Amino acid sequence: METKNIMIVGVGGQGSLLASKLLGHLLLGQGYDVKVSEVHGMSQRGGSVVTYVRYGDRVHSPVIDKGEADFIVSFELLEAARWLSYLKPGGQIVTSTQRMDPMPVITGAAAYPENLVEKLRATGAKVDALDCLALAQEAGSGKAVNIVLMGRLSHYFDLPEEAWDASLEAIVPAKFLDLNRRAFALGKNA
């Protein structure tokens, strides 16, 4: 199988690293060679965080170059737009419609772009956008946006639901497992 590339993009503190660990565990369990690479910006100060997940028969490098991502999973709309140049033609964006103002917007030096979903689609990108924060809150915690996104991403994979659940069980602390199972199901079925 040719190597597939997933970029998980967001803002520090949103749970993108847990999401990448979940994906890595899932894909390893399915027999793929997997490479995961974490790139931290100013993550502790709300800065951009990017994780690359590459999998296939044989993966030689953990890095995804521009135009190579099969999927961009975004925790925030502006981050999806920021990393759009990495999406390959025909690639899929799975994004939360959540908006987190970056520092230039907070200070008034810039305005948050309007109609980002429409602008992303206008580039030819396939965009699956949903209010992951509302779904996470419905599951029991706004911190479960990452698992809602993984549930949504599971739509695009032909992998057994039991494999996703086994990875959730392996990666998520036991006391949060039921909440995360609900979050996953809400994202998957949204």
Describe the structure.
With 190 residues, the protein is α/β, with parallel strands linked by helices. The chain has a single domain, classed as Pyruvate-ferredoxin Oxidoreductase, domain 3 (3-Layer(aba) Sandwich). Helix content is 38%, strand content 24%. It is built from 8 helices and 6 strands, in the order βαβββαβααβαααα. It has helices spanning 16-29, 77-82, 103-106, 116-122, 132-139, 145-153, 161-171, 177-189; strands at 4-11, 33-40, 48-56, 69-74, 87-96, 126-130. The protein has a 6-stranded mixed sheet with strand order 2-3-1-4-5-6, with helices on both faces.
Question: How do you describe this structure in short?
Answer:
The chain has 190 residues and is of the alpha/beta class. Helices cover 38% and strands 24% of the residues. The chain has eight helices and six strands; from the N terminus they run E-H-E-E-E-H-E-H-H-E-H-H-H-H.
Topology (elements, then pairings):
Layout: E1 4-11, H1 16-29, E2 33-40, E3 48-56, E4 69-74, H2 77-82, E5 87-96, H3 103-106, H4 116-122, E6 126-130, H5 132-139, H6 145-153, H7 161-171, H8 177-189
- Count of individual domains: 1
State the share of residues found in helices, binned by percent: 25-40%
CATH superfamily: Pyruvate-ferredoxin oxidoreductase, PFOR, domain III
Could you name the CATH class?
Answer: Alpha Beta
- Poorly predicted regions are none
In angstroms, what separates the terminal alpha carbons?
30 Å
**Average of per-residue pLDDT values:** 92
Report the order of strands and helices: EHEEEHEHHEHHHH
Can you name the CATH architecture?
3-Layer(aba) Sandwich
Strand content: 15-25%
Topology, number of strands: 6
Radius of gyration: 16 Å
Based on secondary structure, the structural category is alpha/beta
Q: In order across it, which strands form the biggest sheet? A: 2-3-1-4-5-6
Q: Do you know the CATH topology?
A: Pyruvate-ferredoxin Oxidoreductase, domain 3
Question: How many DSSP helices?
Answer: 8
Largest sheet: 6 strands, mixed
Q: What is the 3D shape?
A: globular
